[in-house]
Design brief:
Beta-Lactamase, Alpha-Beta Plaits, five-stranded antiparallel beta sheet, elongated
């Protein structure tokens, strides 16, 4: 039954339908691609300009708030240090005294409206000794206390401690009535409040703002202002270089952004952690601090990504819709032609078991389809006849090959003993001589003759003689090696060709064969009398002359016969 042909199962790449569909797809795709590129580029450019305008203003506002925070702290400590009551008490202090008078003086300095960032006060004697302290156990490094004791003017500085957050100090000298410096009042400021200062009123909640010290290490960030502690916070930027070290509670060194390209205010760069960000930095005039604003690239350009996604989905729907319409219209027009074209290709490859669906029309396509189907039916009939004839020829060929193989085997096999015959032996000898001439390996021959065979044959009859030859052939075949060749040389004479065997080894093999025959008894006629049969063996080794090779073995066999039979003789006079 022919296979119904379905042209819709595949569309050849060079078919007319495929070309039309590809043209529609390509036109729609290119149009959508151009429109998408224009839309995405416009959105990206607009967003870039907005970011370039937003970041400088953001940095300026944050920097101004930090400057105002530092100025307020400095003004507060100066006001406290200039209070007349504090000056009156501090003037009577002794160097390094930590008594009621010093503590009373510090209580006076701490009285009044408290500054929000004030974490503690320390009164330092000009000698560097701490006279008194107030607040949450404020501490000063000894060398820093000594430097502050020599201070003659107001100052704000940032000290990096061995562990924990940095220490921001605002200091002012306390002067006596005559204008001399009698002590230094040091205010310890909490940097936690700086995070709130940087955050402002939260108008830029998605942008991470970090305050970086003059040593390049972080001080605080808007992220810490949201409630994270320095020892466990995520970094002010998501990169670990700006994070607080979780083991030591310290800020690590922060990498500032590279300079932005010409005409731009914001840099686009990749953090060592692998995160891609946009950012900008502004240096403060005071303390050498830097305000750093960063935002993940994906977050900053999320509107562009959203636009790209919507455009891609819209373009994909349009392209698929137009391609589908083009496919349906084109298939209805060219499908019959395509079916005939593909059917012709399949017939050219020998696929005759097909049938093109009849369009039932009277136009050229319908006539061509019916003619095509008639042609395939005739081709299938002819192919069937040819295959039948080929099968018959194949069977005849196999029978002929089997007959030739049997004839070939008969031509090289002795019909009685089933050993190789004289002809095969001569061909094999020729190959062995060529081999040993190349390799130099030894090659020996054993000529074996049944003793008194003619007398046994005349007395017992030819049938018994043939049986004797067959059984002796089997005994000798079982006694020799698989690598040696045993053949019937003629009459009652046999020959063994022993490769890779010298004269002594061949003589040993001959003795083994002789003993195997002599040990057997043969029942050859109806008298039930056992007969003993012996063989004589002549051995020779090949020395480069094929004729001399045979003659030497023949002479050795002659000596074995002359010296009493049932023995092995090798070329030369030695007796085995």
């Amino acid at each position: 039954m022919p296979e119904p042909f379905a042209a819709s199962r595949r569309q050849p790449l060079n078919s007319l339908a495929t070309k039309i569909i590809f043209f529609v797809f390509l036109s729609t795709f290119l149009t959508a691609l151009v429109v998408s590129w224009i839309s995405i580029e416009s959105t990206h450019r607009f967003l870039r300009e907005a970011i370039d305008q937003r970041y400088p203003a953001l940095l300026q506002r944050s920097a101004s708030r930090v400057e105002a925070w530092l100025s307020a702290a400095q003004a507060d400590v100066e006001a406290r240090a200039g209070a007349p009551a504090l000056r009156a008490i501090v003037g009577s202090l002794r160097s390094g005294a930590d008594g009621p008078e010093a503590r009373k003086a510090l209580d006076l300095a701490a009285s009044g409206r408290q500054l929000a960032a004030l974490g503690g006060l320390v009164l330092v004697h000009p000698s560097g000794a701490i006279a008194a302290a107030w607040g949450d156990s404020p501490t000063l490094p000894p060398d820093l206390a000594h430097d502050l004791g020599a201070l003659v003017g107001p100052d704000v500085q940032c000290v990096r401690r061995q562990s924990g957050a940095p220490l921001v100090l605002a200091s002012a000298p306390v002067r006596s009535a005559d204008g001399g410096v009698v002590a230094v009042l040091v205010a310890l400021l909490r940097t936690d409040d700086l995070g709130l200062v940087l955050a402002g009123d939260g108008e830029e909640a998605l942008t991470r703002i970090t305050l970086v010290g003059a040593d390049g290490r972080g001080i605080t960030s808007t992220q810490l202002a949201e409630g994270a502690s320095c020892s466990a916070a995520e970094a002010p930027s998501s990169s670990r270089e700006a994070a607080c070290d979780e083991n030591r509670g310290e800020w690590s060194e922060i990498r500032l952004p590279p300079p932005p390209p010409a005409g731009r205010a914001v840099s686009d760069y990749q953090k060592p952690s692998g995160e891609r960000v946009i950012g900008a930095a502004q240096r403060l005039a005071r303390l050498g601090w830097t305000v750093l604003a960063e935002e993940p690239f994906d977050q900053a350009f999320e509107p562009v990504i959203s636009v790209v996604t919507r455009i891609f989905v819209t373009d994909l729907v349009i392209v698929l819709l137009f391609s589908f319409l083009a496919y349906k219209i084109t298939a209805a027009i060219v499908q019959p032609i395509e079916a005939l074209s593909d059917g012709a290709r399949r017939i050219s490859r020998g696929e005759l078991d097909l049938e093109i669906p009849d369009t039932r029309g009277n136009d050229e396509i319908g006539l061509l389809t019916r003619t095509f189907n008639d042609m395939t039916r005739k081709l299938r009939k002819n192919q069937s006849e040819i295959e039948t004839a080929i099968h018959q020829l194949t069977v005849q060929k196999q029978e002929l090959e089997q007959a030739n193989e049997q004839l070939s085997q008969l031509s090289i096999t002795d019909g009685l003993t089933k050993l190789h015959n004289h002809r095969f032996f001569q061909d094999h000898l020729t190959r062995e001589i060529k081999r040993v001439q190349r390799s130099g390996d030894p090659l020996s021959i054993l000529l074996i003759d049944i003793d008194d065979f003619k007398r046994l044959n005349d007395r017992l009859g030819h049938a018994a003689g043939d049986e004797l030859l067959t059984r002796i052939a089997r005994i000798m075949d079982e006694s020799m090696r698989a690598s040696d060749l045993l053949a019937r040389y003629g009459g009652e004479e046999f020959v063994i060709l022993a490769g890779n065997t010298d004269l002594a080894g061949a003589a040993t093999l001959g003795e083994k064969v002789r003993e195997a025959v002599s040990e057997k008894s043969f029942l050859l006629d109806e008298t039930m009398r056992l007969e003993k049969v012996t063989v004589s063996v002549g051995v020779a080794q090949y020395k480069g002359d094929r004729k001399a090779f045979f003659q030497a073995a023949d002479r050795a066999l002659y000596r074995a016969k002359a010296q009493g039979k049932n023995c092995v003789r090798a070329e030369g006079d030695g007796v085995v």
